[in-house]
């Protein structure tokens, strides 16, 4: 692959795809109502692409991931944290609208804003870095005749009903298998997923068939502000953010979710620390998945987790100068359906993330184990699942 492989591929950054069965890619077995399996490969450098298959919708989507210049990327696609933030915000919006309908509360032009905070501490090249997640914060503005206290209760209950909330609210230690040079080995320091690893998928993604959108729908991911322009904007007007102790460094993302006329969502993701380019996404959580024009919220969330873990594998191996010829993951996340959108009235939850890691290298098994362990410890999104980061409601909902 060339260094800027995404440009060479010449595909939309997000698009539907077909041909999974012929490529040997099988869905995860459903446990709680919706499971999302993700296959992710490295394209070289910091760039990756991956495919999700939702057991709930039956739809497969292909996503691209890159980073900005501050991490040696080309800024050609959204970063992993973007996908998770967008998936979370859209999931909360879906449950909010369903619950408002059930309670006969009119919401005109609701705008849901999600603040995600992460931190890192220690040295990546030395293998001492650790990443963590702080409590996300959600706020709501809308036009409504409802009492603000009723709107606040609505937002709190909608967050509780969202499937992704079960991963964030509780301590969920991710589970792993590790296959090195074609042989499954004990990951030792990582929590082991019982049983045999899934079959190594190899590299089937390139052979999948793109199913491209009608041009009238527009791109499903679009850059709205460059990394350089975002740096200048932050310098002129720094956002409010937590103050961390010691040498910890903050990452702060803000995602604003609005409802489009067709019922899909427009999600704008901005990143303030470390500054990154801003991206706009389309998310489609409408009930008729057959008519979906964009991935659903849980597919966005799931691919982001897999992308972030893959990023840490590649970065650490590169910085530590460890020979790594190839690596890829197959990841399953088992969610419940949304408690409001499905009508169950139950709180949303999910099982711990399950990741099958495949590495090809000239190193020994202990080196492979070490790479996987550092990748899990430094992955912001596994930290979001691992840490107790209960979602907070920021202030009373504002009726405009």
Short overview:
With 400 residues, this protein is an alpha+beta fold.
Kindly describe this structure:
25% of the residues lie in helices and 31% in strands. It is α+β, with helices and mostly antiparallel strands. It starts with a helix and ends with a strand.
Q: Overall mean pLDDT score?
A: 94
What is the helix tally?
8
Briefly note the structural class of the backbone.
alpha+beta
Q: What is the alpha-carbon Rg in Å?
A: 20 Å
Distance between the termini: 51 Å
> What oligomerization state is this entry in?
single chain
Strand content: 25-35%
Key features of this structure:
400 residues, globular, nine-stranded mixed β-sheet, alpha+beta
Task: Please specify the SSE layout and strand pairing.
Blueprint: H1 5-9, E1 14-18, E2 33-44, E3 47-54, E4 60-65, H2 80-102, E5 108-121, E6 130-133, E7 137-143, H3 148-161, H4 165-169, E8 175-180, E9 183-185, E10 209-211, E11 221-225, H5 227-236, E12 249-259, E13 265-273, E14 275-283, H6 297-319, E15 326-336, E16 354-360, H7 365-378, H8 380-386, E17 392-393, E18 398-399
Parallel strand pairs: 7-17, 7-18, 8-16
Antiparallel strand pairs: 1-4, 1-10, 2-3, 2-15, 3-4, 5-6, 5-7, 5-12, 8-9, 11-14, 12-13, 13-14, 15-16
């Amino acid at each position: 692959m060339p260094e800027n492989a995404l440009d060479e591929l010449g595909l939309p950054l997000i698009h539907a795809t077909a041909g999974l069965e012929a490529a040997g890619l099988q869905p995860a077995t459903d446990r709680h109502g919706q499971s999302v399996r993700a296959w992710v490969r490295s394209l070289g450098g910091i760039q990756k692409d991956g495919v999700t298959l939702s057991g709930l919708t039956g739809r497969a989507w292909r996503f691209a991931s890159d980073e900005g210049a501050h991490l040696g990327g080309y800024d050609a696609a959204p970063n992993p944290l973007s996908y998770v933030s967008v998936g979370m915000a859209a999931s909360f919006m879906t449950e909010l609208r369903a619950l408002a309908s059930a309670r006969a509360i009119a919401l005109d032009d609701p705008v849901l804003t999600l603040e995600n905070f992460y931190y890192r501490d220690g040295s990546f090249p030395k293998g001492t870095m650790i990443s963590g997640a702080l409590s996300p914060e959600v706020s709501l503005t809308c036009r409504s005749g409802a009492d603000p206290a009723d709107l606040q209760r609505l937002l709190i209950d909608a967050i509780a009903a969202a499937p992704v909330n079960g991963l964030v609210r509780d301590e969920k230690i991710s589970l792993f298998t590790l296959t090195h040079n074609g042989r499954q080995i004990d990951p030792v320091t990582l929590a082991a997923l019982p049983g045999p690893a899934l079959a190594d998928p190899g590299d089937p993604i390139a052979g999948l068939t793109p199913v491209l959108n009608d041009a009238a729908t527009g791109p499903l991911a679009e850059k709205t502000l460059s990394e350089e322009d975002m740096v200048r904007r932050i310098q002129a007007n720094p956002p409010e953010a937590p103050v961390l102790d010691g040498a910890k460094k903050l990452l702060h993302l803000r995602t604003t979710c609005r409802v489009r006329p067709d019922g899909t969502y427009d999600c704008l993701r901005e990143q303030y620390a470390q500054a990154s380019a801003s991206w706009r996404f389309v998310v489609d959580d409408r009930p008729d998945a057959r008519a979906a024009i964009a991935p659903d919220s849980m597919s966005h969330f799931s691919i982001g987790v897999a992308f972030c873990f893959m990023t840490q594998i590649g970065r650490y191996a590169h910085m530590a100068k460890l020979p790594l010829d190839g690596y890829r993951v197959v990841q399953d996340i088992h969610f419940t359906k949304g408690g409001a959108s499905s009508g169950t009235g139950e709180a949303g939850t999910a099982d711990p993330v399950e990741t099958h890691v495949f590495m090809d290298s000239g190193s020994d098994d202990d080196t492979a184990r070490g790479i996987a362990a550092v990748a899990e410890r430094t992955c912001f999104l596994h930290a979001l699942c691992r840490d107790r980061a209960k979602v907070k409601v920021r202030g009373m909902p504002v009726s405009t």
